[in-house]
Amino acid sequence: MPLIRNGKTGPGAPKPKGTRAKSGCYTCRIRRKKCDEARDHNGHCNTCVRLKIQCLGFGDKRPKWLTKNKCDEILTNIKRFLAGGSVLSPETSYLILRDEGLEATTSPSDSFESSYDTGFALFEDLGLDNLAEPVELEGNFRSWSRGNVLLPQSPSLSYNAPLISYDFEPEDYFTPTALSLLSFMDVESTLIDAQLDRRYTDMVVGMQYQFSDEGTRTEILHSIQSPGRHQASTRLLAFIHERRHASPLSIALEDESAQARYSELMAALNDPRSYDDDQAMASLTMISTLLFDGGRGDWQMWLNLVVKHAHILLGQTPRLALMRCNRKQAFLIKACIWFDVLASVTTQTEPSFLHVTRELFSPNISGISDVNNPDSDMMTVMGCESRIVWALAEVSALAAWKQQEMDKGRLSIMKLVQRAEPIFQCLDEPLNANDHPASRNLCSEVFRVAARVYLLSVVNGDFPDAEDMEKAVQEAVPLMASADNAVVRSTVFAFFVCGCLTNDNVSREVLYEQLRREGSIGNCAAVLELLEQVCMDPRGKQEPVPWRRALRKGNLLLV
Fold it and tell me: Residues of 328-362 as b/e, b for ≥16 C-beta within 10 angstroms?
């Protein structure tokens, strides 16, 4: 039987050179990285918890078992773990560096008993850290927690069949070499993936597309049943959601393992030779990942990928193509149009799908925007009437045209007003669709009144004290004040634009408070921060509000 290492060094090994540094946990010392020395309720340093690596504890002298060879082995495992985290295949979700149960006096047979019954038994019998008490998270999602590793409580995630195939003698099980042969971490990763899938299904998809109808969500969930990039991206999104919930003040994508997963998906999805519907859905989810983690990042890159694919699907006849494509493709196209239109507010360029929104959603053209055709209506995708999507796209296009004319020194105010008139007519008309849930109707109305404020800022300039601007904001604020969480999170565009273009402190505080209420999951906190910066910027009344410059510089996507 292979021998257990007892910590004794062999001939020729260097003699101990006294105690190691007396600060930091042993894991961080082995990594030669600074340890924050702040400990959680289990006594683990926050650095290790954040990296999802086992904390080996604190002390003045190195433990006898922690030989030089063991340190080298641990360092190699840590480097491999941090560099190779993958969401595209089963992979370690938490790195165990030392199983203290191996050095206990437990008999081998004790460790095998009942390990065939459930997923929990395996973890308990291996002598890992004691599991914490059950923690209630959100919705119907309950989990057990050990450090930052979520282990399932739900019977649906338990297993009645053996989790590991034992092809070796029981005594081999208790050697470090044999332990590395176990697919222990693969088992844990499978459980983690199941948890992430359930978290996405139970909570995250409803937050990602808050006003999509049941049929759309069913199609999305069906799409991630098979392994692929879309499934991998939703697991990353669920992971980001969990981390933001656990650590509201931290950026989840700064986690090294999350960065590795994000980078791998970026490499996989950037291959134009294999880009398909699954990858386009994954790219949309990557935009959501950035939104859930604060709203900043390279969302433009992901959007560009989806835009190219959507243009291919639409071809030369967008209306006909959208009616002929399957439900998944229809959702993908409409979601892409929505992201593109709101992104144009930040980029201050003409939307990529301007010709498409004109053909599909113009109120002057009878087409798929017909309220009697709900399967093709943007209300069932993003909670916004199709004609309002058209209006938002036209305002962004008008703003881009105005800037071009000003740059050339030939802006005609009369022509500007003429171009704006059809948009005003559209936005003056209240809600058309009354057969939707009240929250979805309110969401669309918030977009309508905010789009009017946006349009006035193009025609009049960014001057809050203009009479018609004051009136438009006063009409919008009561609607936003009555908005529930789902409406607030979906209409951050409205909160930012209206908040920037009012000098009324009472109205502005109402908008501030609604955004504060939403906490840190999503981009509400980032929108609030940027809004406060714009409003605190000293300027004279004769000066326009520099909200466009601040938004472009902040690269914040108002979705």
Answer: bbbbbbbbbbbbbbbbbbbbeebbbbbebbbbbbb
